[in-house]
Design brief:
The chain is built from 24 helices and 14 strands. It is α/β, with parallel strands linked by helices and 440 residues long. Strand 13, helix 23 and strand 14 form a beta-alpha-beta unit. The longest helix is centred in the N-terminal third of the chain and has 18 residues. The protein is globular and about 65 Å long. The structure holds iron/sulfur cluster (SF4) (2 copies).
Length: 440
Amino acid sequence: MIVPIKKYFQNGVIMSKMIEDIFSFDEVQEDCIKCGKCIPVCTIHIVNPDEVTSPRGFIDLLGAYKQGNLDLDKNAKDIFESCFLCTNCVDVCPKDLPVDMIIEQVRSDIAEKFGIAWYKRAFFLLLRYRWLNDIAFKLGWAFQTCGFKIKGDIDSMHSRLNLPIIKTDRLMPSLRKTSFLNAHPENIDNGGKRKVAIFIGCLANYNYRDVGDSLLEILEALEIDAFLAKSQKCCSAPAYFTGDFGTVDSLAKFNIEYFEGFSKDVEAIIVPEATCSAMLKIDYEHYFHDQPEWKARAKAIMSKVYMATEWLQNHTELEALLASKKKVPKLVTYHDPCHARKMQGIHEEPRNLVRQNYNIVEMSDSNACCGFGGITMQTEKYHFAKAAGIPKAAMIEKTGAEIVSAECSACRMQINNAMGVESKTIFKNPIELIAEALRD
Ligand code: SF4
Ligand code: SF4
């Protein structure tokens, strides 16, 4: 039986991917009709207009590689690492070709052949062990002012020195003294009859802590108990996009087993982060395509995972509660994270909650990728990430909004940097905006 394993949303219609589509490179190559519809929307092609760095170029090269006609040499590695995995191409492709997924697979071959850079290995090691991560981030917090100037109002910092990857004009997330998970008790009783678990994600845990704190405020207002699931580990998205499948295997199996242990006690596992939520809900199942037992377990857990605004909009009275509160005289523009709108079909839910109290102005292309692209793109290929961020920052500035919002901390890091330290527009997760409106 052919099993659909990935869903994309086109004009409100759910498009399913079949497992055979994803892992038969030859068929994908033949299926591409070279119509070119993907070219104008391809994030890498926009900043590097070359046929080899385009969806159909990637498909041709991957087909040649799988047929033994192309060596996986440094040039091929360089090309395959240039994709932002934004899924813009999948969104418009009339053949519904899963370019992002076949690139994720070939990156595992690249990692096996070339190894993984030492700094990425060190980072992935931290992700595997929360206690180590806690120590590293605490040390980072203690010493961050030595090397960086802190912009506390936007949880960001920029380097005092021009270093190879970290330039003085580059804004990066600053660290908090205490992580979200360490700042609160594991069980929070809001006197309610309902209970949800929170999966917070690494950036919101260590850097953008107001996201989690705001989510707790919202649950308190709704009288819904919270379980912080303190043993949770990174969803593994950074390792998955880099091809480090050993780390993905370890983290995904740990999280699935852990979630199984408490899932019957909670209504949902809510995630205020698009990338983590897409990883748990969708990419775990892909990753386990050749491990049937784990694939089934991932699928069972997936049914309990929701993006935070998705669950709050569709399963609570939050919208009515917000409608009873005062209007906040601030103009907000909403950016659609690739992992929310294109992968999970979530775009109306955050807007609907935010518009109860704020005026929303749409930017010219809210669906255009912000250009975050993952660790490789943020380090070795930072020039591409920077170039992709410029048009996104320009369309945000053009709206005149005081706040740009997106339910994704990776987008936050990229958009903050693209807008720069002088920008008057500040970034807020919709969860922070909702909590602010409830306070009034
Ligand atoms: S839109 Fe799809 S079918 Fe058309 S060129 Fe791009 S990948 Fe090929
Ligand atoms: S996933 Fe994005 S960057 Fe990669 S080929 Fe598709 S549109 Fe281009």
